[in-house]
Specification:
The strands form 2 sheets. Strands 3, 4, 6, 7, 9 and 10 form a 6-stranded antiparallel beta sheet that branches. Strands 1-2-8-5 form a 4-stranded antiparallel beta sheet, with no helix packed on it. Helix 2 packs antiparallel against helix 5 (about 75-100). It has helices at about 5-20, 20-40, 50-55, 65-75, 75-100, 105-120, 130-150, 155-160, 170-175, 185-210, 275; strands spanning about 225-235, 235-245, 255-260, 265-270, 285, 295, 300, 305-310, 325-330, 335-340. Strand 9 and strand 10 form a beta hairpin. The protein is elongated. With about 350 residues, the chain is an alpha+beta fold.
């Protein structure tokens, strides 16, 4: 069935009008990130509570595909700060323009890209309803749909494309709104292919992050998990590395116990919450911007933080050769154990 140009224009205007609610909602989703970080409260100040770079660090442990990029940024604070500033500006522009319907199709690609980044970086986070995964996958679908519909009648594109210089630019519809110069058959193929890719990403990431398609459903944001590595005894010093890889991003792991036992179960060293709250910062070597620090009643290990810890005690000297068990205890009662071959 063939349509004349006027009928096509009316169809695109109508379809763009139908997606007005999507434009406003997804636009505010991204613009509000800028609004929260700079207008309501400045979250781009390093070394202050709420710094967005530390929030970005939370993505690191289980990110999909972009983990090396995240690790580079959180290991280099200056580069991270600039990345967060640029990212915030992009979110502001994309969010505001998509709400206004200005360069709608170009901004819809921005929505698709931002949503994909959120999905891959933080799709595993969410303590109750797989929050970040839902935001990412719905943003991808929304950006894809708005690219084809354009802004419709209630958009700045609609007014600007009838005025100079946009009315003389024949490719303006590819960046703004209006009729796309694609044949009906090719259009159907592109829509089906794009939809299939996004639906595949939906199922794949749901399964990868949460076992949401088959198997036992899991949520990596429910309880903290701390990995122990490089544990060793050297003269009077016990050293090891901790890396917090799971648990809620808004709540730290509060370490209230570090215990070392020999093979017979004899306690060689036992540190409680009070002593850990006085842990010397000079004996903590943090890798990333999310830092392991002594808290009021414990040693606090934020999500995504990684640090080498060193403890010195006289009774660690001249320990006989053998296997020792290092046990860390969280305030929730969870314990993590690593054997040390001395």
């Amino acid at each position: 069935m063939k349509y004349n140009n006027q009928e096509l224009q009316q169809s695109y205007l109508l379809s763009g009008t139908f997606t007005l609610a999507l434009r406003l909602v997804v636009g505010w989703t991204y613009f509000s990130a800028f609004w929260r970080r700079l207008v309501l409260e400045n979250k781009l100040i390093e070394d202050q509570a709420g710094y967005i770079g530390e929030k970005f660090n939370h993505f690191l442990p289980n990110a999909l595909g972009i983990k090396p990029m995240i690790e580079y940024l959180v290991s280099n604070p200056d580069a991270l700060w600039w990345a967060m500033v640029i990212f915030t500006i992009i979110e502001a522009i994309v969010g505001l323009f998509i709400m206004l319907g200005l360069f709608t199709r170009l901004m819809s690609i921005g929505v698709l890209a931002l949503a994909t980044g959120i999905l891959l970086g933080s799709g595993w986070l969410g303590t109750t309803c797989l929050d970040e995964w839902q935001i990412g996958i719905l943003g991808m679908a929304t950006g894809f749909a708005i690219f084809f519909t354009g802004g419709g009648r209630y958009s700045l594109d609609y007014y600007l494309q009838n005025k100079a210089p946009f009315d003389r630019f024949k490719y303006s519809s590819w960046f703004m709104s209006g009729v796309l110069s694609i044949g009906d058959t090719l259009m159907k193929k592109i829509v089906i292919a794009g939809t299939a890719v996004i639906f595949f990403m939906t199922l794949f990431t749901n399964q990868y992050f949460h076992n949401g398609v088959w198997g036992k459903l899991h949520n990596k944001s429910v309880k903290p998990i701390v990995e122990i590595s490089d544990a060793k005894l050297d003269d009077d010093k016990l050293s090891f590395t901790v890396f917090r890889v799971e648990g809620a991003d808004v709540y730290g792991s509060f370490l209230i116990g570090i215990q070392l036992k020999d093979q017979e179960g004899n306690v060689i060293m036992d540190k409680d919450g009070k002593s850990l709250s006085q842990f010397s910062k000079s004996d903590i070597d943090n890798y990333y911007v999310a830092k392991v620090v002594p808290g009021k009643h414990s040693l606090v290990i934020p999500l995504g933080s990684k640090a080498a810890l060193a403890l010195k005690e006289d009774n660690l000297q001249n320990l006989p050769k053998g296997i020792y068990d290092l046990t860390l205890t969280d305030i929730s009662g969870i314990t993590w154990t690593q054997s040390i071959h001395h």
